[in-house]
Design goal:
Blueprint lengths: L1 H25 L8 H9 L7 H19 L2 H24 L7 H21 L9 H10 L3 H15 L1 H4 L1 H23 L5 E7 L3 H12 L4 E6 L6 E10 L3 H11 L4 E7 L15
Antiparallel strand pairs: 1-3, 1-4, 2-3
Length: 282
Amino acid sequence: MNKMIKELLIISLGSFLIAVAVGMFILPSSILTGGVAGISVLLLPFIKIPESTMIFILNVGLLALGTVFMGKKFLFNTCVSSVLYPVMLKILERFVTPVSMNPILAAIYGGILGGIGIGLVVRQGASTGGMDIPPILLKKFFNIDVSKSLIFFDSMTVLAGLFIYGLEPVLIGLISVYSTGMAIDKVLTFGGMDAKKVEIISDEYQKIQEDIHKIVDRGTTLIEAEGGYTKDRRKVLMVIINNSQYTKLMEVVDKYDKDAFVIVSDVGDVHGKGFTKEVARL
């Protein structure tokens, strides 16, 4: 029961942030953003109904689509968000006067606030009932990141406005879309452990490997590889480290081979011994 209450409170907070983003930034500045808010702005010249009413209609339709493929919990939590969001938006429109501001600022801050709100809702296994439902379905069936597919769908919505509103509103809209996607990504990965994956190609891999175990205190993996040009068989040494261990690791590599080929990539989250589980020590 406590878990359910916590989920509902977070969903309520997320829905409120989305309503603030849309009601205080996106709609007043007529930002061509993605989601149902962006679609409502896009349709406004053709369908003369209030944007908030259009948002409600689109939310109901997309909720029906999500219900077909997702479970009861998703349906319940999404219904909560789908009701709270338009209701909060109506309340804000009635009692709060939006502040006039530069459209670029509105796009940035509206995008960030909306992204945080969507991220909070999605983390609870729900959606706002809007255009985040298709990305959630893509994540479920094809393991495509929610933030990436949402940026794609929203960008297509914004670009469609090029023929109606011109280039400048579209460019501003893309700022909002990118801000939303990045905020969603940060919220969905919040609490994960930032780390780096380092791949090392060196003839001195055995010495480097030993010092990584002893000095850096990380395990390693050896991968068989073949040079694409030389066809030589090589060992690639792979290690996952905390960001704080990167300098120490590079000192080890440089100690034995200053010409080593090193590939470094960021890792959003790591699960396993030494990261999310304690390493057993003798």
